[in-house]
Amino acid sequence: MNWLFTAIAIVSTLLIVLVLLQKANTDGAGLGGGDSIAMNNKKRGFEKKIFNFTIFIVVGFIVLNLIATVAR
Length: 72
Fold this sequence. Notes:
mainly alpha, 3 helices
């Protein structure tokens, strides 16, 4: 059980770092009501790899926490 909490701590830290590495796609259009549909923001290269890896880590984080919940 100790290995599970260690794995959750490592995955949580990695998830925080990955989220902080991602570029913020805000241009003030959220609250002020700008036209965000016309923006053409496609992820390419390293940014796309970070985004996909973040999704993978989120799924792992969810699975580890479900295992920890069931194991109690």
